[in-house]
Design a protein that fits this description.
This protein is an alpha+beta fold. The chain has two domains: 75 residues, no CATH class; 58 residues. Strands 1-2-3 form a three-stranded antiparallel sheet, with no helix packed on it. A two-stranded antiparallel ribbon has the order 4-5. Strand 6 and strand 7 form a beta hairpin. The chain is elongated and about 65 Å long.
Length: 156
């Protein structure tokens, strides 16, 4: 029996004073994924990204019905989706902001005692990025492993 596909809804929360919010649509555009049976939300993503790692199906925690959740394994997604998976809009914005802050503090050359402010700013911005890429790397590793084990069955 073919399972129904999850519902994908994109909502713009861009300000209405800008012509239909077109400038902010990419930034302020949460994507909501819902169960097709009971419409309960199972995932909310900031931005239009559509790359999720997984086997492609899940069971709703509310209605207990199975459905396809739009996820794919790492080996099955396109290269642009891989980039968007590793560098979603929020992470890209964080990296640009971090770079700008480091350039600014490098130019100013402030120090707190013997510690340059640049070192503190770099640590503040790099720590979450390192944690993000370790987390995503682990997800990619698990996805590749699942994909390589998918067709294999134990022989007696």
């Amino acid at each position: 029996m073919d399972q129904p596909l999850a519902i994908k809804e994109q909502e713009s929360v861009a300000p209405s004073f800008v012509a239909s919010g077109m400038i902010f649509t990419g930034i302020l555009c949460p994507t909501v994924y819902r169960c097709p049976n009971c419409r309960s939300v199972y995932k909310v993503v900031l931005g239009p990204g559509d790359a999720f790692l997984g086997e492609g199906h899940r069971t709703c925690s509310k209605c207990r019905q199975a459905f396809r959740d739009r996820s794919k394994e790492w080996s099955e997604i396109s290269s642009i989706d891989r980039v968007l998976f590793l560098f979603p809009m929020v992470v890209g914005g964080w990296m640009i902001f971090a770079f700008a802050a480091c350039v600014l503090f490098s130019y100013i050359g402030w120090t707190l005692g013997t510690t340059p402010v640049l070192a503190l700013v770099a640590t503040f911005f790099l720590t979450p990025l390192i944690a993000w890429f370790v987390f995503r790397g682990y997800q990619v590793f698990c996805s590749v492993r699942r994909f390589s084990l998918r067709g294999k069955t134990k022989t007696p």
